Amino acid sequence: MLQLLHIDNLAVIKSLDLEPCGGLTVLTGETGAGKSVIIDSINFLLGKRVPRDLIRTGEDRASVSALFSGISAERTQKLSEVGVECPDGELLIERTRFADGRTVCRINGRAATRQQLVAAGELLVSLHGQNDTRSLEVAEERTALVDSAAGSAGLLEAYRTLFSAWSERRAELAECRRSEAEKERLRDMLEFQIKDISSARLKEGEEDKLLAEKKRLESGEKIRKQTDVALRALHANEKGITASFLAARASDALARITGVLPELEPLRGRLDSCRYELDDIASELIRITAADSGLSEEETDRRLDAIGSRLEQIGRLKRKYGSSVADIMKFLSDAKGRLEEIESADERAAALEKEIASVRTEMDAAAAKLTAARLAAARETSLKVKEILEYLDMPKVSFEISVKPSGSPGRDGYDDVDLMLSANPGEPSKPLAECASGGELSRVMLALKCAIADSDGIPTLIFDEIDTGISGKTSRKIGLKLLEASGSAQILCVTHSAQIASLADLHVRISKREVGGRAETSAEPLSPEERIEETARILGGITVTDAQRRAAEDMINRRD
Fold first, then answer.
1. Residue 32 in 3-state DSSP?
2. 24-28 and 506-515 as β-strands: parallel, antiparallel, unpaired?
3. CA 538 to CA 554: how far, in whole Å?
4. Which of 135, 141, 157, 354 qualifies as a FRET site for 190, CA 20 to 30 Å off?
5. The pTM is what?
6. Rounded to the nearest 10 degrees, how much is the dihedral formed by the CA atoms of 227, 228, 229, 231?
7. Residues 6 or more apart from 38 whose CB is under 8 A from it?
């Protein structure tokens, strides 16, 4: 159950702690006191969408945290299946939104995803807001409601696995069976592309080598001129005065005086090394430039033309198939794969037809089990809901959860689920959304929640103004039904009804006051005397009278 809810800097709430009891906790207060902000904070905590102006003006963040305790072994196992560990049956959930829009989620102090927060929330809390009766108009929500009553989550998961496999194979078969004309056009295009690329016989790195050779050939005259200068300086010229010659002369000169200055011997050795290195450089330079110097001008022009043609061919392929040779080769590989798929499409289509038939047989069986579970749950739940609605002053009501074949497989099975209602005798049953008033919708929603509370096992149920459109003894009966439901689940109820508030195990008053020039909302558990005063306020008008106080005290003391 929810043991503690803590809210910081959320709208009119500066800081608020709420500690509901394990039974029926009722929240009351003047309109605008902040009750809806508490509901918004719970929605925010559980990963739901909330208004963007959530953060209290002037603050840099808003945060909500909740401590859940006494979580059953079954819930603990289900939480573990969605990646949320729950040691000792306790769970601390926190969610913070910053002014820059960032949101941080934590579970038991560790970072968590919003999806984990949502999954954990769905297992721990069921929140019915003022507008949630409209969810009964959504087919998927009605189906989910019946599945919750049936406890058929495992059956639904097994069916959905088969449905996904069946859908994927059907889509693949449709692709295989594209019109023959389209397949032929695609085949012709792929064959042309494959031939266009393959005939070029591209090699990885070829373009870079060609560009380097082109640059070298275009710079031939410059290369010859500068290498000639270098060789004449290093190796040979008409005067015979080269770097190597000068190094040799210097070495010979030093050799004549090393007897007098023996310390010059290392220098002479270094000069000899320089001479040998200069000769080696000259030889290497001759070798490197020999290939270029051996080409005539005509041969150079022919080679440049050949390189230009090849580069143009590569450029044309790049413009059509990719920005690099590697991209072009990948395009070629992909094209060959697609052509192979087309060539084997008929064979694959035959195999897919067999697979589809096999999966459909399994899917039919899984759907039949799901339908059987839904029908059984629908019959049982319909009777429970009808009984509750009769108690809630709809004595002639006719209610049925209708489960009928949908005509085609869907993600949730083969069934169409609807809620059929006739509130008045002699009137035919119609879909709930077409015939129910606001008060009737509220009662139906309460009846459904109460009817499936034991089935879905959610430990905390929250109702936000479930009494909308209802007053008098019917409102009292709703309170009694909530009190009864609190025997198996923790109930929190926001209400403006004295008939409901007077039945609370714990009555909390939500009020707003001015602190330091700013409005702040607080939550205050009421003493027995304060409960009487608050219940009388709800009953009365501008001024609370002694008669209203006596009536309020009588309502609190009576539990019927």
1. coil
2. parallel
3. 14
4. 354
5. 0.65
6. 80
7. 5, 7, 13, 16, 18, 27, 494, 510, 521, 523
Q: What is the mean pLDDT of residues 73-101?
A: 89
- Could you give the C-alpha distances from 74 to 124, 129, 196, 200, 484, in angstroms and in order? 12, 27, 64, 66, 23
The rounded distance, in Å, linking the Cα atoms of 67 and 44 is 15
Cα separation, 11 vs 31, whole angstroms: 15
**Rounded to the nearest 10 degrees, what angle do helices 438-456 and 345-391 cross at?**
110
| Residue recorded with tokens 């080269």 | 242
- Distance in angstroms (rounded) separating the CA atoms of residues 207 and 191: 25
Q: Which amino acid, residue 209?
A: K
Strands laid side by side in the 91-98 sheet: 13-18, 2-10, 61-68, 91-98, 103-107, 110-112
Phi, psi of 397 (to 5 degrees): -70, 145
Beta sheet of 24-28, edge-to-edge order = 125-128, 460-464, 490-494, 24-28, 506-515, 518-525
Backbone angles phi, psi at 249, to 5 degrees: -60, -45
DSSP state of 415: E
pLDDT in tens, 411-461: 999 999 999 988 888 788 888 877 767 777 878 888 888 888 766 778 999
Give the pLDDT mean for 306-311.
Answer: 86
Q: What is the DSSP string of 168-197?
A: HHHHHHHHHT--HHHHHHHHHHHHHHHHHH
| Total residues found in the chain within this entry | 560
d(CA 205, CA 185): 34
DSSP secondary structure string for all residues of 251-275 = HHHHHTTTTT-GGGHHHHHHHHHHH
Handedness of CA 343, 349, 354, 355 (dihedral sign): positive
- 31, amino acid identity: T
Give the CA distances from residue 32 to residues 12, 520, 543, in Å, rounded to whole numbers and listed in that order.
Answer: 10, 11, 19
Q: How far apart are CA 132 and CA 17, in angstroms?
A: 26
First to last CA, the chain: 26
Q: Can you read off the two tokens belonging to residue 430? A: 């119609």
